Amino acid sequence: MPAVASAQWKPVEDVRNYAITGTTGAELYRSIGERGPEVGGQARVIAHTTFKLTWTRKYERQPDNACKLTVARPKLTIIYTLPKPSARLSPSVQAGWNSFIEAIRTHERVHGDTIVDMVKEIETLSLGFSAPDDPDCGKIRANLTERLGEISARQRQRGRDFDRVEMSDGGNVQALILKLVNGP
Description:
This protein has helices at 25-35, 91-126, 139-166, 172-182; strands at 12-20, 48-61, 67-85, 130-131. By secondary structure, the chain is an alpha+beta fold.
């Protein structure tokens, strides 16, 4: 049986802003298109969530020559990249911007949550993970790497599925953009 994740760790959030220009919703959105983060060499996006994950792991040889992972402690930093106007906005444009950026933050937090879920799943799998007849703890690392790749692939697919719905015609992100662009 896999161990239960310890929940003794908390992710760190790192919010990185990129400057945009403009004094209307349309100008702000145009600037996002010009300055937003590039993801995977594709078009620029409004915002992006990524992460840095490192582990403290301890592999121990067992009396029966198995190798067991006895410590698996993550250190997770979730990195949110968001737009930020560089100029003061009129009260009406500021109100529209505040509504837009809060909804974008909420969207990006969903991606952050899937990352946290992935790390918890990895932690649960890792604690107590073992490989028989592995006195040098080489097999366990290869086995673990394969399983972690599967977990990571599921997390990325969840993100793509979420974005497909959110960014579809008539989806939440499209509605946010239209509200910002057509606002004051």
